[in-house]
Amino acid sequence: MGQRGSVLLLGGAGQAGSDTATLLRRRYPELPLTIAGRNPERARRVAGELGGATAVTVDLARGDLGLPAGEQYAAVVATLWDSRLNGLRFAQDHGVPYVSLSSGMIDIAPEVTAAAQRPAAAPVLMASHWAAGVITLTALAWAGEFDRVDTIRIGAILDENDAGGPAGLADLARWAEVTSAGYARRDGGFAWSGAADARVELRGLDGTTVTGQTIPILDVTSLAFATGAPDVEFAFAVGESAGTRRGDGPSVEVRVDLEGAGPAGAPLSVSRYLVHPRGQRPLTSLGLAMGIERLLGLRGDAVPPGFYTPETLLEPAHVVERLADAGTLFVDA
Questions:
Q1: Does the structural domain 6-130+283-315 have CATH classification 3.40.50.720?
Q2: Once rounded to an integer, what is the mean pLDDT over residues 208-236?
Q3: What CATH number was assigned to the domain covering residues 133-279+322-332?
Q4: Which residues sit opposite 239 in a β-bridge?
Q5: Amino acid 104: pLDDT
Q6: Model confidence over 280-324: pLDDT tens digits?
Q7: Which superkingdom does the taxonomy of this entry point to (predicted)?
């Protein structure tokens, strides 16, 4: 495969980490993986189930992460919140790619600063978008049908029983504690709004509505600059999903509305749902796995040092293909 060392998955025994490791193992059977966690028993269990993987105990409070000296790693993947960013510094010190998932828009300043201060140290992928960027990439794929995009509205309905494991729940609690304000691009400007003004009603495929709100998330800025659309918003709601109502278990629905002009200049609009019957976990793990394989050069050339977001590395059409292969459904609204 060319790369030296193992892919180090911080929080690899959690939901996002273990699902991502499973996808990588399935696609690249010989890729070395290291499952790093605070609970050695859980890490060993996940590593054993994967096969060809090792388990280590990690301490995010230490600059060396508490890892044995002399070990070589091909990449560092933070699938949980690393408030000290020791995972990023460790990757920079060793000159290997780094991927983060849990910073969120409200927490990115330290990460951006650390990456900017050492731009030649390592490639850094900030994937704190919804589902690690696959929604943004899907919207960009559909935006390819337009000559000009004026408006992008995305509404994601997450099942109340599909918010993730302890790390995912902690992320949601942290973000909710910091702000209840909304965020969007309006008439070309990026602006915050109060919680009342940010409130929206999201309609699922079966017609059921759930109250949500526009949220500060990196998908807004990524889509705004990638398309030039002057109006972009991403709304989010937690409630009972259509899958749960049917008795099939938590599902996830994301509606993407695009408005603008077609190649001939005539008005054009697209409204589609992205649906996965097993919830958000397959989407997030796929986004992470695709980012890792791109950074390592498992698809395309290895990525040079720099600061990246998912849409700068991944091809929208390829992401849609992989989502479909993973069981995602695309339905016209």
A1: yes
A2: 96
A3: 3.30.360.10
A4: 159
A5: 81
A6: 999 999 999 999 999 999 999 989 999 999 999 999 999 999 999
A7: Bacteria
